[in-house]
C-alpha cells in the first residue's frame, strides 16, 4: 500500500463520504424524532458538521459528482408538490384561492421592500424578491409526511407551495431576463432574453406532456395493474428530468406539471405515494443535507447581514398572514399556523433545478452575502417554524393521535 496515503481509505471515495453523511443524517434524525424534534434536523446537523461550516468533507466539488442523484431526488419532491395541487379546488374556492395567490405575491413584494430599505440595489432586490416568493417544497412536504398532517389548512398550504413556486418561476424569468440584458457583458436586449426564458418554460411544458403521454400510453397498452404503475411513472419522471437537463428547459415547471397531470387528469387509482414513500423520505434528507453542507455559518456573524435576513424572514410571515385575512374557510389560529408553515424559502438553484450547487453570480457582493445569510437561516430556523405551524393548526396525527 502506498505509504503516502495518510487519510482513511473511505475518505478517498466520494460515494462513501456521501453515504456516511446520509447515514449520519438519518441516525440523528430518527433519534431526534423520538423526542418530538423534526427529523429533518438530522440532515441539518450532519450537513453542518461535515460541510463548509465543519470538517469540509462535503463541498461543491464532491457534490457535483452526484448532481444527477440530487436532481433525481428533486424530481420526486417536485412531482409530489404538483400531485398535491387540486386545480378544481383552486378555481372554485373563491376568496380562499385568491388569498393564497395574494399571499404568494405579497411575500415577494414585502421582501423586496425590506431589501431596498436595507440598502440593496433595486435590481438585485427585485431579483432576490422574486426568488423569495416561493415556499421550500422539501421542508413542508417532509414535515407533513413526518407528522402525518392532514386537514383544511394543510391541504391549502400544500396547494400554496405549488402556486408559489410557479409564480416565483414566472417572476424569476422576467427579472432574470432584465438582469442579464442590462449587465455589463450583455449581448442581447430585454425582449430577446425574455423570449429565451419563456422558451425554456414552454419547452418544459411540452416535455411534461410528452413524458406523461408516454406513461399513459405504456400503462394502457400493457394494461398494467395499479401496483405496477409506480415503476413506469418513475421512468417517465426520469425521462422528463433528463430531457429538461439536456435542453435547458424548465425542470421545475415540467416536474410540477407531471404531478398536476397525475392528480387532475389521471382517473385511475394512484398508488405512487405508497409505493415510493421511503424513496421520497430519503430524497428529503439528501436534498436538505446538501443545503446544510453548503451553508457557511460565518455569513451570520456580520451584524447588518443577519439583522436584514431576520427582517426579511419576519416580513414574509407577516405578509402571508395579512393576505389570509380575507379568507373565511380557516379560523384565526389556522391562519397563524399557515403563515408559519409557509415561512421557508428556496435558493436560485432550487427554482431553476438545473444545478442546485450553483447560485446566480450576477449579484453584487453585499446582495450575495445577504442571500447566503437567508439560506443559512432557512436551514436553521425554517424546519422548526414549519413544524410549529403544523402543530398550531392541530392537524398532525403522528402515531394516529392528534
TrEMBL record:
Annotated GO biological process: proton transmembrane transport
Recorded GO CC terms: plasma membrane
InterPro entries: Cation/H_exchanger_TM, Na+/solute_symporter_sf
Domain of life: Bacteria
Domain Cation/H+ exchanger transmembrane: 23-370
Main location group: membrane
Protein name, as recorded: Cation/H+ exchanger transmembrane domain-containing protein
Organism whose genome encodes this protein: Zemynaea arenosa
